[in-house]
Amino acid sequence: MREPEVQVEMTEASAAEVFAGLYEQYMPGVYKYIRYRVANVHLAEDLTSAVFEKALAGFGRYEKDRASFFTWVMTIARRVVIDHYRQQSGRRDMSLDKAGDIASGDSSLEQDAVKREELLRLQVCLARLSEHEQEIVSCKFGAEMNNRQVAGVLSLSESNVGTILYRVVRKLRDCFREWENGKGR
Asked: Of 22, 109, 140, 170, whose Cβ has the fewest other Cβ atoms within 10 Å?
């Protein structure tokens, strides 16, 4: 038999400490997700800040029985990105975290050029995906969420997420093959 839960009122100080710990733990994943969704580092930082401002403002209403904190904050992140693009009403570019990946001190200029070309190919191929597919890729690979977490944030079944990811990977592979055959330019 399950023991009844004891409701303990959290003081503002203890709530702030709990939130600070959650922020430290989940901010990198939220940032990576947003960075996949927007092309600008500074914008990604601003949107990440907005996510955690909203999360802090609503922290008193967060119910851990309904969803994990990660799912809850990723839902907020998704809505912040959607709201941003609604306000922009412009074309959306799918971007990757390029800053640290492209220029490494150990590689030659030729290797850097190859990496840039591959990154450009990937960005073009990702941009060909539907909005829904881009959202799933951002959650899975940007925020490093598992399929169950992606399903929770996007209100899909876990098996549906897996199926969509399988199809997206095939589409990306086919897109890269087109590039290799000279058709993707």
From this structure: 109
Instruction: Show pLDDT as tens, one digit a residue, over the chain (185 residues).
Output: 444 443 445 566 687 888 899 999 999 999 999 988 887 889 999 999 999 999 999 998 888 888 889 999 999 999 999 899 888 874 444 444 443 443 344 456 777 777 777 778 888 888 899 989 998 998 998 888 899 999 999 999 999 999 999 999 999 899 888 877 775 55
Q: Count the domains in the chain.
A: 2
Residue 124 falls inside a structural domain: yes
- The residues near 37 (Cβ < 8 Å, ≥ 6 apart) are 44, 81, 92, 94, 95, 134, 135, 138, 142
Q: Do residues 37 and 153 touch, judged by C-beta distance below 8 A? A: no
Positive/negative CA dihedral, 182, 183, 184, 185: positive
Same domain, 78 and 131: no
Domain coverage including residue 42: 12-88
What does the DSSP assignment read for 20-33?
Answer: HHHHHHHHHHHHHH
How much is the pTM? Answer: 0.64
What's the rounded Cα separation, in Å, for the pair 26 and 144?
A: 11
Shared domain for 67 and 116, answered yes or no, is no
Q: Which two tokens stand for residue 4?
A: 């009844």
